[in-house]
Amino acid sequence: MDYSFVADHFKFLFTRFLPEVINHSQEQDIRIGRAHYDRGNDFFGAFLGPRMVYTSGFFLSPGDSLEAAQDQKIQLVCEKLQLKKGERLLDIGCGWGTLVAFAARDYGVDATGITVAEKGAEFANAQIAREGVSGSARVKVLDYRDIPKERYQKISCLEMAEHVGVRKFGRFMEQVYGLLDDDGLFFLQIAGLRAKNGLLGFHFEDLVWGLFMNKYIFPGADASMPLSFVVENLEKAGFEIHSVENIGIHYSLTIARWYDNWMANRAEVVKTYGEWWFRLWQVFLAWSVEIAAQGSSTAFQLVANKNLNRFDRRRWIGATNLGERDLTGKKSP
């Protein structure tokens, strides 16, 4: 397939994309975030399924169901974080609260999730109540910049950091560092693009796809970058990176399930949101399956701790460090 820049690409690049990259004000980010994530829980449920998890799952077999893959991913996050009963967990950009509810229910932590999406928070707190953990879990409507300066033993952030923006990514990592206990762990799952030497550091095809995503699907989510960008900013903020796992192919399999769900729910989506929205997301999901399968788009899981002499690194011995090695054979929740 041939990819080329057309006039509309240049117009979008200079009139919307670059101004948003440069700005990334709090007002802009909240407005854009709510316009996307508060579109309607039924809209997202049409492809996310009953788990309502809007991030890559983790497959132990290519034939796993979407629900199994998401359960396995949530278990993997909790295992990589080495969650222990009574610890405080902060999930930044928690979506519909599935990780928050699960961690409180099955690991006994005190879990707080934050999101800018009011409808998502309402759904999340209802889910938490159904699981019977309202006393130890909650989701708050809050921008990441307004998180109170408290300390947490464990912090997770799954595919929210892309929305922070390239210019403010380093500052966000510094904020997370300040919220984490000195002996705590930080789990970051982030979507990214493959690196390439040359103009702008991207494959041309990947850049065209990224601009499509930014214009039609995730406005302002410009921090989907090569792994080196993420590593550099984590280390500059004072983190030591323990593990990095590329789960790009898991993302492709996840989105393939989302596409199947979307197509199966076409009638209801068109009835409520119209043909334009249905067809736009049909293109987005189908394209994303192939983009992730060929390595253009990927996702990384990183686990980091503060780079301090006194941090006890013996905790890694015998722990769950890499899902594709350590989760195989373990019972999913």
Give Rg in angstroms.
19 Å
In total, the number of strands is 7
Whole-number average pLDDT?
89
Strand proportion, as a percent range, falls in 15-25%
Largest sheet: 7 strands, mixed
CATH domain class name: Alpha Beta
Class computed from helices, strands and strand pairing: alpha/beta
Regions with little confidence, pLDDT below 50 for 5+ residues: none
Helix share, percent: 40-55%
The CATH architecture can be named as: 3-Layer(aba) Sandwich
Assembly state of the chains shown: single chain
- CATH fold naming: Rossmann fold
Protein name: sphingolipid C(9)-methyltransferase
Organism: Stigmatella aurantiaca (strain DW4/3-1)
Pathway: Sphingolipid metabolism; Lipid metabolism; sphingolipid metabolism
GO molecular function, one term: methyltransferase activity
Please give a structural write-up:
The chain is built from 13 helices and 7 strands. With 333 residues, it is of the alpha/beta class. The chain has a single domain (7-304), classed as 3-Layer(aba) Sandwich (Rossmann fold). The chain has a 7-stranded mixed sheet with strand order 3-2-1-4-5-7-6, with helices on both faces. The longest helix has 19 residues, at 275-293.
Task: List strands and helices in order, with pairings.
Layout: H1 7-23, H2 26-37, H3 41-48, H4 66-80, E1 88-92, H5 98-107, E2 110-115, H6 118-130, E3 137-141, E4 152-158, H7 166-179, E5 180-193, H8 204-217, H9 227-236, E6 239-246, H10 248-264, H11 266-273, H12 275-293, E7 297-306, H13 323-326
Parallel strand pairs: 1-2, 1-4, 2-3, 4-5
Antiparallel strand pairs: 5-7, 6-7
Helix pairs in contact: 1-8, 8-12, 10-12, 11-12
